[in-house]
């Protein structure tokens, strides 16, 4: 390994300073933005989700997904019944 313990100590101090500076800066900016616009949706809007905010559902529950034709993993799509297997 090249370098010294002194260099590693300075790098650790610098990393901690950057983490603290970024955290405090983010906190201050969020507080300033929070004075102008709400940072969290109302509880009723959170319960309704995208329908309350955008007027439509992004992933409606009544539309089958592309990866699972029946809409649920492990469920087979409706179709003709499978033939019964012989007991064995």
Mean pLDDT across all amino acids: 77
Strand content: under 5%
Q: Tally the beta strands.
A: 0
Instruction: Characterize the overall form.
Output: flat
Count every helix, treating DSSP H or I runs of 4 or more residues as helices.
3
Which structural class should the secondary elements be placed in?
mainly alpha
Fraction of helical residues: 40-55%
Distance between the termini: 67 Å
- What are the secondary-structure elements, in order, as H or E? HHH
- Largest beta-sheet characterization: none
The rounded Rg comes to: 28 Å
Query: Which regions contain 5 or more consecutive residues with pLDDT less than 50?
Result: none
Question: What do you see in this structure?
Answer:
There is one protein chain. With 88 residues, this protein is mainly α. Helix content is 49%, strand content 0%. It has helices at residues 5-36, 43-48, 50-54. It is flat. It starts with a helix and ends in a 34-residue tail after the last helix. The model has no long low-confidence stretch (mean pLDDT 77).
Give a brief outline of the structure.
Helix content is 49%, strand content 0%. It is built from three helices and no strands.
List the helices and strands and how they pair.
Elements: H1 5-36, H2 43-48, H3 50-54
Features of the shown structure:
mainly alpha
């Amino acid at each position: 390994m090249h370098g010294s313990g002194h260099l590693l100590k300075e790098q650790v101090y610098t990393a901690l300073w950057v983490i603290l500076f970024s955290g405090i800066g983010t906190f201050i900016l969020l507080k300033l933005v929070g004075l102008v616009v709400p940072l969290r949706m109302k509880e009723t809007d959170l319960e309704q989700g995208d329908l309350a905010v955008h007027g439509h559902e992004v992933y409606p529950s009544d539309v089958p997904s592309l990866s699972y034709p029946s809409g649920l993993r492990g469920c087979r799509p409706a179709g003709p019944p499978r033939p019964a297997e012989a007991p064995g």
